[in-house]
Amino acid sequence: MGTTEHTGRTAGHAAAQKPRGGRLPRRERRAQLLDSALEVFVAQGYHAAAMDDIAERAGVSKPVLYQHFPGKLELYLALLDSACDAVIDHCRQALAATDDNKTRVAAAMAAFYTYVADQRGAFRLVFESDLTSEPAVREHVERVTAECAAMIADVIHDDTGLPADQSRLLAVSLVGMAQVSARFWVAESSGLSRSQAVELVSGLAWRGIRGYPLTDEH
Description:
Elements: H1 26-48, H2 51-58, H3 62-68, H4 72-96, H5 101-117, H6 123-127, H7 135-160, H8 164-188, H9 194-209
Helix pairs in contact: 1-2, 1-4, 4-5, 4-7, 5-8, 5-9, 7-8, 8-9
């Protein structure tokens, strides 16, 4: 991107192996293992990553890793669950931050851009997973669109009076616009700062959604 705001392109580069340390409480060890697994999965993808790689990255033996996660899929799903929750929480907070719908559109768009720009690259697990053929993974990924769209649809319905199915379709369209444009912005290094990109795309979204005013016909 050429700006300090854009850090997403460094996400795929895992850092050096963590030094082996002393015994950690179970919760802290689990968090450490998830952190290391995220780096490996983002850098290599699910299929290329190995439990050996993750254990080495965390600085633990493979039996320690298996004490917390019975297999690679379970570890991946645990990471994916956390990543999906983060996207949904970002969207919820953006919508709750204001009652002004124009500002809400910009805040929701910014939530996606901020998440995608995070240098840890967790968005790749949600939006660019190489394991969507696995039903459990696909269910997690679809949950992000479904829950974010449901929240946005409620706002659209209240503001426009459109029926629930129409409000939901518009909401899904906004979610798609947010995540696809944010990923394009990260990948293309276009020279736009995050704030410029958010302003541009949220302006497009608002010009469209404000064309559905509340009237007696709805």
